[in-house]
Amino acid sequence: MKTKIKELRARYDLTQEDLAKKVGVRRETILFIEKGEYNPSLNLAHQIAKTLKTTIDQLFVFDD
Amino acid sequence: MDEEARFRRFVGIVIAVLVAGAVFVVLFANSSVDNWATLMSAAILVSLAAIAVIVARRKKKELRSGIPSEDERSTAIRMRAGYLAFYMSLYFIFGMSFFHAILEDNQVASLPTSEWLMIYVAAMGSIFLVLNAYLTRKGVPR
After folding, report:
1. Taking CB atoms and an 8 Å limit, are B73 and A26 in contact across chains?
2. Which chain A residues are closer than 8 Å to B58 by Cβ?
3. With a cut of 0.90, is the ipTM above it?
4. A22 contact residues in B (CB cutoff 8 A)
5. For FRET with A21, which of B65, B74, B78, B117 sits at 20 to 30 Å CA-CA?
6. Burial class, B89, CB count within 10 angstroms (exposed 0-12 / middle 13-18 / buried 19+)
7. d(CA B142, CA B130)
8. Residue B109 phi/psi, 5° resolution?
9. Rounded distance, CA A52 to CA A11, Å?
10. What is the pTM of this model?
């Protein structure tokens, strides 16, 4: 799984820590999601998508 | 080496260190030092106190920064570490019971059951802490 979180964070000038605070998780969680090494819950994915003004399907890209 | 193989190697090292530690304790118990149980208890208490201080300082820092100390990933890691620690502890206890039986068969002075239990509990706690720290850094293997 690939994500566009890093790209969108840069667009809105947000650090990993800023995004983590906005969605209520630890910075490491954002880091591992960005690296594709942690699959967030649907609720967290929705929170991140909402914060980055996008949708879940645009934020997460599955290689299938 | 892939992530799974690295993780298996790490688990092997943890078990080896724990077994080596327990063997050391048994050998120490057979030496001329007769207050080893007091020394061990003191060492465990000091270790627990040190861990508590470190955890409390970290939590305080996190509370000040506004970042939660727990989230869904840390909860998932803790559950995974607990699950793995439980199974690793079973193997550890089984291995050490076997070692204990060998000592008794050879009439080598061993530890009383209460002290073996203390070692098992300390080992279970240590396995959990080490796994939790490892998975927090490396992520949960898929």
Report:
1. yes
2. none
3. no
4. none
5. B78
6. buried
7. 19
8. -60, 125
9. 9
10. 0.64
